[in-house]
Amino acid sequence: MEFPLTETALGTDKDIEVDTAAVCDQCQGAGAAVGTPVYPCHSCSGLGTSGPGPHGGSSLQCSSCHGSGVRIPSPCAPCAGTGRVPVRRTLTVRIPAGLRSGETLRLVAHGTMHLRGGGRGDLLLHLDVDEDESRA
Length: 136
Ligand SMILES: [Zn+2]
Ligand SMILES: [Zn+2]
Fold this sequence. Notes:
Structural class: mainly beta
Shape: elongated
Order of helices and strands: EHEEEEEEE
CATH class of one domain: Mainly Beta
Distance between the termini: 16 Å
Bound molecules: zinc ion
Number of strands: 8
Helix content: under 10%
Oligomer: single chain
């Protein structure tokens, strides 16, 4: 995300498009088709990891559930069992005056939904300000 210095020197409102995800309203984030159960993954007991390998390395993502920790016999179609659907939203962001290049703007609770109803995370916008426009 780049902004000319002229805009950031005084502060500005900026419309930006963000790709984020929303809870699937078909399954309410459960990931299973409506009326069907969700089981803990039998391979990893719901942990999502298969534990340290035979050589004691770091734990691996469970190959049965791909790290989700659940087994969904009938995945919800709109979200393919993830409980989330991608959405593109336009946010109006207040760019504070005097923002410097490389600063990160935190937009609380505008981020991507966590898996399965874990709430909405913060959206971090990394801003690159072109501080020397004569150079461009
Ligand atoms: Zn769904
Ligand atoms: Zn598993």
